[in-house]
């Protein structure tokens, strides 16, 4: 395990993968947003979206990552954890200046937290409302091989919410190999989307590859590779000030799902072996930001 320095990611761009875990979009009430999006296959993700672009003059230029806080905008908003595995990748650019390939260097627990805004024109409009609107763990796995049978084969993803002194399962504990696209297939697909994905007024997707060029071709990407499915509790529960959001990527060869639940229940998640733990305390803000 290695430590991730948050300030080192300010020069990176942040993107996410939509629809990479069967059933999540339906639970999140977002399946209708993609009705007109034609995917490569039935199991393929729907597309990619930006959540941070260094130097951007709009809301996407605000650095949203935190190791320990989650900012809840003021007003009547429905805010949900999106438990994901996050990849830190080095990006190579081709002779035409566009992103050409991705090479992973680290894998972390990641919270692609979202405001549920039915009818939002773009996915990004639900993703960055200011500082501490996203989360990434401080302690991460160094990775260079995402092969389904490789070093990450035993990793699982759990998500819990602590509220009022009680721990609740928020996401369904799932193996990373349960993602629809994973390994080299996922990395090649993302690179293809960075080259080819276009935006349109009637689409929730945007030309993310063009955004990277405009941002000066950042050498690093932080990629949320998709949220897992919610438990019934998670599907119907939105975040409130004082809540503690926990996303944990752990090695199932060293820790069981029951061990993770028990550790979180007693506040001992930081002592789990071979685990990337993201714990964020939800704080209210005086005003919302961004989109």
Compact overview of the structure:
This protein has 291 residues and is mostly beta strands. The chain has one domain (2-152, 179-238): Alpha-Beta Complex (Fumarylacetoacetate hydrolase, domain 2), CATH 3.90.850.
Structural commentary:
With 291 residues, this protein is mainly beta. It has one domain (2-152, 179-238): Fumarylacetoacetate hydrolase, domain 2. The protein is built from 5 helices and 16 strands. It has helices at 24-27, 183-196, 208-214, 232-236, 257-265; strands spanning 2-3, 13-18, 47-52, 65-66, 69-72, 79-80, 83-93, 99-111, 114-115, 134-136, 139-142, 155-163, 166-175, 220-227, 244-251, 275-284. Strands 1, 2, 3, 4, 7, 8, 10, 11 and 14 form a 9-stranded mixed beta sheet that branches. It has a 5-stranded mixed beta sheet with strand order 5-16-15-12-13. A two-stranded antiparallel sheet has the order 6-9. Strand 12 and strand 13 form a beta hairpin. The radius of gyration is 17 Å and the shape is globular. The termini are far apart. Residues 286-291 have low confidence and may be disordered.
Question: Which terms would index this structure?
Answer:
291 residues; mainly beta; Fumarylacetoacetate hydrolase, domain 2; nine-stranded mixed beta sheet; five-stranded mixed beta sheet; 5 helices; 34% strand; disordered C terminus
């Amino acid at each position: 395990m290695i430590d991730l320095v948050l300030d080192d990611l300010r020069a990176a761009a942040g993107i996410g993968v939509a629809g990479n875990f069967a059933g999540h979009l339906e639970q999140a009430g977002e399946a209708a947003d993609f009705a007109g999006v034609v995917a490569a296959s039935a199991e393929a993700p729907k597309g990619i979206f930006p959540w941070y672009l260094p130097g951007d003059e709009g809301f996407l230029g605000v650095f949203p990552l935190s190791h320990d806080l989650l900012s809840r905008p003021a007003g009547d908003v429905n805010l949900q954890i999106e438990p994901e595995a996050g990849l830190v990748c080095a990006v190579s650019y081709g002779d035409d200046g566009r992103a050409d390939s991705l090479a992973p260097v680290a894998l972390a627990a990641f919270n692609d937290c979202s405001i549920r805004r039915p009818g939002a024109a773009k996915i990004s409009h639900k993703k960055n409302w200011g500082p501490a609107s996203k989360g990434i763990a401080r302690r991460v796995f160094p990775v260079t091989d995402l092969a389904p049978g490789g070093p990450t084969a035993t990793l699982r993803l759990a998500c819990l919410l602590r509220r009022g002194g009680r721990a609740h399962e928020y996401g369904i504990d799932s193996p990373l190999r349960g993602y629809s696209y994973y390994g080299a297939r996922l990395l090649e697909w993302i690179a293809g989307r960075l080259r080819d994905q276009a935006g349109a007024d009637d689409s929730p997707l945007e030309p993310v590859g063009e955004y990277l060029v405009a941002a000066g071709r950042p050498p690093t990407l932080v990629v949320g590779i998709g949220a897992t499915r919610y438990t019934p509790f998670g599907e119907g529960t939105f975040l409130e000030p004082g809540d503690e959001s926990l996303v944990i990527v752990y090695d199932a060869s060293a820790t069981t799902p029951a061990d993770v639940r028990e550790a979180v229940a007693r506040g001992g998640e930081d002592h789990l072996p071979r685990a990337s733990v993201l714990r964020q305390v939800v704080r209210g803000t005086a005003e919302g930001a961004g989109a």
